[in-house]
Amino acid sequence: IPIGTEIEGMNILGLVLFALVLGVALKKLGSEGEELIRFFNAFNEATMVLVSWIINLFPSNLVVAAFRTIPIGTEIEGMNILGLVLFALVLGVALKKLGSEGEELIRFFNAFNEATMVLVSWIMWYVPVGIMFLVGSKIVEMKDIIMLVTSLGKYIFTSILGHFIHGGIVLPLIYFVFTRKNPFRFLLGLLTPFATAFATCS
């Protein structure tokens, strides 16, 4: 509100002054104002997360979105999944609306996806060899190899045993209880995803 007239816009100075007065008043209340302060802090964090999601839904640069997520005010490393997924959905709908004119671009993306999967399969075959030499070089640098092998063997055994109990007994039992079907026949169809997850440690 300038002198004499009103214009559209947020009165930042008034809001900041009100927030300062409210903060001082809550602090003066002592323990009685702590709950309200915690509420405002939680509300502020939730608002910042929501605003961050909205900003990331509309990336200004798709190449940057493939490498960076933009929270409030700063950039951090990490793929902007929200923005990329939204763009892919909108692009897919637009290409479908084009009909026959969009078929060429759809075929291009399908071919690009297949080529990427071939590259990933090649990498999956060679990654274990590289990891073997990487781990081997670290083992050679160790002084007490016997202790390392013993502790590592216990860890591997415990991990495999836990995965076997959970994946081979608990999950099939839950599947059988709810579906009354043979769970191991279903698990046979998951061998490829399991191999992919094991090879990529994901």
UniProtKB/TrEMBL annotation:
Keyword list, A-Z: Membrane, Symport, Transmembrane, Transmembrane helix, Transport
Record-linked Gene3D superfamilies: Sodium:dicarboxylate symporter
Main localization, broad class: membrane
Keyword Magnesium recorded: no
Subcellular location: Membrane
UniProt topology in membrane: Multi-pass membrane protein
Stored InterPro entries: DAACS, Na-dicarboxylate_symporter, Na:dicarbo_symporter_sf
Top-rank taxon: Eukaryota
Pfam families: SDF
TM ranges: 7-26, 46-67, 79-95, 115-135, 155-178
Gene Ontology MF term list: L-alanine transmembrane transporter activity; L-aspartate transmembrane transporter activity; L-serine transmembrane transporter activity; L-threonine transmembrane transporter activity; symporter activity
UniProt record similarity statement: Belongs to the dicarboxylate/amino acid:cation symporter (DAACS) (TC 2.A.23) family.
Name of the protein: Amino acid transporter
Annotated organism of origin: Cervus elaphus hippelaphus
